[in-house]
Amino acid sequence: MTPGESDLATLLADLDPVLHDGVYVFVTARETPPGVTPVLTFTEPEGLTLVVPEGQAEGVFPCRWITLRVHSSLAAVGMLAAVATALAAEGIPSNAVSAYFHDHLFVPPDRAADTLRVLSQPANVQARWDRPSSA
Fold first, then answer.
1. Which pairs with CB-CB distance under 8 Å and at least 24 residues apart come from 109-114?
2. Is 101 part of a structural domain of the chain?
3. DSSP letter at 102?
4. What is the CATH number of the domain that holds 77?
5. What is the distance between the alpha carbons of residues 83 and 115, in angstroms, rounded to a whole number?
6. Within a domain: residue 104?
7. Dihedral of CA 84/87/89/92: which sign?
8. Inter-helix orientation angle 112-119/79-89, to 10°
9. Strand, helix or coil at 32?
10. 10 Å Cβ neighbour count for 103?
11. How many structural domains is the chain composed of?
């Protein structure tokens, strides 16, 4: 198995974002409820966090799921920081999750198209990272 890309310039040039169908919500529970098919689970001391398709459970932060299809190394430095900086400059909130092969963003439904626009312009993502705004 290849370890993934770690060169920041290559990562930003090859983000290749894809928007998944549907809306998702964040849920907390003691265990995964019956009939719920999470796309993400994470265990914290306070409880289990799940991201599930909307309608499967009551949750918060309705969002769209975007996968960055570049195979990033788990040891890569700066990619998510550059992405978060570019999105923040546009006022787009995002929750990022790193998995073995890819990084994933959860953004408000009404900002999904804006997120794709920003991430489809890697030179702008790199420029924002090189010169973060002072705002």
1. 109/23, 109/62, 109/63, 109/64, 112/19, 112/64, 112/66, 114/90
2. yes
3. -
4. 3.30.2130.10
5. 10
6. yes
7. negative
8. 120
9. coil
10. 23
11. 1
d(Cα 10, Cα 89) in Å, to the nearest integer? Answer: 22
What one-letter code names the amino acid at 59? G
**Tens place of pLDDT per residue across the chain (135 aa):** 668 999 999 999 999 999 999 999 999 999 999 999 999 999 999 999 999 999 999 999 999 999 999 999 999 999 999 999 999 999 999 999 999 999 999 999 999 999 999 999 877 787 666 755 554
**Are 103 and 80 within 8 A, CB to CB?**
yes
Neighbouring C-alpha atoms within 13 Å toward the C-beta of 131:
3
